[in-house]
Amino acid sequence: MNIEQQLSRSVMAAVKALYGQEIPEKTAQVQQTRSEFEGNLTLVVFPFLKISKKKPEDTAQEIGDWLLEHEPAIERFNVVKGFLNMTIARKAWVELLNSIDDDATFGCKKATDESPLVMIEYSSPNTNKPLHLGHVRNNLLGWSLAQIMEANGNRVVKTNIVNDRGIHICKSMLAWQKWGNGETPETSGKKGDHLIGDYYVAFDKHYREEVAALQQQLIAEGVDAETAEKRAKDEAPLMQEARQMLIRWEQEDPEVRGLWKMMNDWVYAGFDETYRELGVAFDKIYYESETYLEGKKKVEEGLEKGIFFRKDDNSVWADLTNEGLDQKLLLRSDGTSVYMTQDIGTAEMRYEDYPIDKMIYVVGNEQNYHFQVLSILLDRLGFKWGKDLVHFSYGMVELPNGKMKSREGTVVDADELIAGMIADARQTSDELGKFDDMTEEEKQHIARIVGMGALKYFILKVDARKNMLFNPEESIDFNGNTGPFIQYTHARIRSILRKAEAEGTAIGRLEIKDLTLSEKEISLIQKLNDFPNVILQAGKDYSPSGIANYCYELTKEFNQFYHDHSILGAESEEAKQFRLVLARNVAKIIKTGMALLGIEVPERM
Fold first, then answer.
1. 303-341 CB burial, b ≥16 within 10 A, e <16
2. Which of 25, 199, 350, 476 is least enclosed, having the fewest CB within 10 Å?
3. Does residue 438 lie in a domain region?
């Protein structure tokens, strides 16, 4: 139990003793005292005035007097109108620090066999292109969210749905057939996902040329410009061929399926390399080529039950007008499925594989409508979590020069980004002299940790719901709200602890007798004490940024303390012991917090 909970219970006891009435714990909450007032924690007494039938000042004074007599954690108090400001006794702070020190996983709850099972879907790549900066944000958010949900005592299944079928996949396949000349990752020296991405771009280039030529021809024949453009896009030979290839794929044509499998295998090998570099993984991967047929079955079931309806052209739809939406296509007139059908099928397969209590989809905010519809459809089809599915909707990543477009080849490639961040970390650390007295192997190891830490922190510190502007140059900085600043502080503390150990200082359980604690030391203990609530709130809000900003605030608080207080050169052995334990727990919680973001912290930098 932390000090806030302890005082809340004591306030409940005080109100009952003074006014003869029990109150719920939520009305006895205490909060940190505002900086302009004396005290550490404050109780707002206005909720108790109906019970006390007294003025705010008198009620606060009576509760304060009772607490001073019965609650040993309180050293003194003052009353400002209806606010009871309490100063916590030194012994209580030390006991709190000891309790934090005793708990290796302070702030995190352990899951049991009865804990809710949460499935989190993230990544969701297409097999027609390599992962880019947008995927990086998705993967980092998904991985971090999984760690946060686990830290809140949930059982978690991390899952990925790979979009390995559809017209966009056929575009890459057709382009390789036409212009590939048998090129492979081995013959080209390219990662498989990059090779296939090149052919997706090539298809678009040739397709646009066809559209432009056909559009001009139609206009010359007297067709108006708008109609000509629409017809040209639809009638272009390349698009017709791609559609035909998709139909052959769905008919399980051996030649098309063989080409599809070969090219997808190249892509998966490339994806796996990128995932390893990002430090993310999955417990289960689903493929839309397997789930779309399940989706079609569920749609046919819904059709039989009257949940969906068929139009004259044989297409199948859901009518959502009662929910204030429109009608949603589920099967095209030729029987081929759409994304919604595939998501229904994926949900069915997952529900068969796992007894899911909550489903969280990590998908960009351009799909808000899609998941609003999916939730309604899954609920209609009888999925117990359908109505309450969570769409973890995040904003787009933009660049200083605008948005990314994969068809035009203007994306920020994930592999190039990762390599660049590590190279920048190495260069910056070399220039600042951070790598003195290290082997080349150590330098590269730490450059990777710092570069990836800079990338991950820069992305995760931003509220996920907002669009973000990505500028790599701002992220690798050893000052300010950056990953390297936090990592460097952890490494500094670990260095202090190693020096203490080398000097023969044993860091044990604190028993402080004469030490007076400074405001900065108390503030730092309070900050450590906040960590469980920060994790809890991050889980409720689905907010990695809450963890990131807490880590920064804790790091900043420690550096302010360290600026004013020597640790190894403390004025007494007692002060030295106390500050070493304090520093050790700051490092521990920085390490735990950054791990929730998927970020490593080095022992030295």
1. beeebbeeeeeebbbbebeeeeeeebebbeeeebbbebb
2. 25
3. no
